[in-house]
């Protein structure tokens, strides 16, 4: 990272650390090379911290701009939202007044259809009752016919039996005379 992009305070600290590293390289102070490398690590860490600080600063600026935009919207949008709501409400009321006669007509038509359907259902129920009664009468009439046929058959048998007895009696009487 170049020294131009760093804050002046960080630049000054890096320069002092570099001077310290140069002094530490001389044997008269007794520092080892690894001690000098540690100063390089400190400088790298300072660069990283500066990079993080700049990122945080940029983020803060971005968030500040967003907050400013939101404050502006809070100040000026509520009236525009209210006017938009009023406009939409006016449109909906117009639609309602336009659709109301159609709704009333559809409701009346629906009631008429329901009334007609109820009448047809009542008529059907009445016809079903008449049909059931007619079916019962037909069954009873058929039963009466069967009973009459049985009665006629019984009468014929009885008549045949009486004729036979009458013939026997006539023969017996004729034989007696």
From TrEMBL:
It comes from the Eukaryota. Residues 131-176 form a coiled coil. Keywords: Coiled coil. InterPro entries: CCDC175 (IPR038834). The keyword Coiled coil applies. This is Uncharacterized protein. It comes from Mytilus edulis (Blue mussel). The lineage of its organism: Eukaryota, Metazoa, Spiralia, Lophotrochozoa, Mollusca.
């Amino acid at each position: 990272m170049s020294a131009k992009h760093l804050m002046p305070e960080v630049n000054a600290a890096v320069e002092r650390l570099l001077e310290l590293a140069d002094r530490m390289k001389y044997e008269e102070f007794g520092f080892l090379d690894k001690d000098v490398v540690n100063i390089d690590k400190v400088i790298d860490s300072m660069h990283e911290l500066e990079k993080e600080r700049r990122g945080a600063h940029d983020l803060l600026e971005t968030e500040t701009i967003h907050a400013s935009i939101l404050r502006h919207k809070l100040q000026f949008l509520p009236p525009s939202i209210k006017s938009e709501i009023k406009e939409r409400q006016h449109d909906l009321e117009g639609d309602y007044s336009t659709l109301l006669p159609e709704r009333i007509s559809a409701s009346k038509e629906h009631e008429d259809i329901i009334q007609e359907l109820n009448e047809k259902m009542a008529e059907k129920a009445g016809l079903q009752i008449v049909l059931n009664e007619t079916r019962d009468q037909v069954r009873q009439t058929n039963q009466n016919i069967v009973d009459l046929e049985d009665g006629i058959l019984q009468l014929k048998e009885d008549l045949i039996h009486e004729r036979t007895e009458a013939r026997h009696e006539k023969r017996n009487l004729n034989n007696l005379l």
